[in-house]
Amino acid sequence: MNAKQLLSMGLGLGLSLSVMVLAACGGTEAAPACPSMGGTWKIATHCAAAYVGQMAPIAQDGCALTFSAPYDSFKGTVTAEGKFTMSGVSQGITVTCDGSATSTNLAMSCLPGPCGATLIKQ
User: Fold this and answer.
1) Are 106 and 39 in contact (CB under 8 A)?
2) What does pTM read for this prediction?
3) How many angstroms separate the Cα of 20 from the Cα of each of 6, 17, 27, 79, 104?
4) How much is the pLDDT for 65?
């Protein structure tokens, strides 16, 4: 093989590997979007029965979440895969929650407690 053939083969192999890497790593495709969680949610279950039936508005900016009453001061995030976290202060106690979320359902477990809750988007 002459030098020109080797160079051509090397460039072809390099280009093929570059294409494979881009395809395997997602290339320039945008990251998956987070579930749309902004809006009003109804508390369907909660460890404190007084919360059941209350509405809980959530504001969303990208994957960042901000909660209103009854979860005043709570902030959180949701991933594209639906992993959900939030934390805030309730009655002078710092509460942290995690769970799973979709665009219509949210299930979480909070500490201290434990305290579980499910919310349904209205």
Assistant:
1) no
2) 0.70
3) 21, 5, 9, 27, 37
4) 95
Domain coordinates in residue numbering, the chain: 1-30, 39-121
Q: Contact at 8 Å (CB) between 78 and 35?
A: yes
Closest CA to 65 of 100, 36, 93: 36
Residue-wise pLDDT tens digits, 33-48: 899 999 999 999 999 9
Which alpha helices (H) appear in 1-122, and where do they start and end? 3-25
